[in-house]
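Before relying on records like the one below, remember that each one covers exactly one chain. Contacts with other chains, cofactors or solvent are not represented anywhere in the record.
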Amino acid sequence: MGRYKQGLAVAVAGAALTVGMSAAPASATSYTLYCDTSSASGAGTINGWASGATNLGVILSVYDAKADGHHVAIRLIAKNDGGGVLTPWPWHHNYDGYGESLTLSTTASYSAGMYDVGIEVATFEGGTELNYCRDWLRSDQT
């Protein structure tokens, strides 16, 4: 695990303990996803997910891994029961620059159910997405 992922793993794990203990039922399972672009590293912990979930506890963390003048962002993504990608949740932008990370705890709701869930990490120039990566937790992985 690279230096950036180690830092993200620690930040996400610490937040997961705090949020997971207060927001998820005792029987809920947590899953952590990771993905990297050429200049961003991201992680997301999904608390209480099962295929078709309508509400989730989520911890997202993104790290700016390159001094290139661009900012990085992370968001939750999911798929509906037909496999279509859902992106109703906002990007969380880290404008603090190279070497800095942003970690936040939030919830995600989708009344028709989330059948796969994931994270998307991207590098931006202003409002233009330059590159991205995705990591998915699929219903057949649980």
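The chain has one helix and nine strands.
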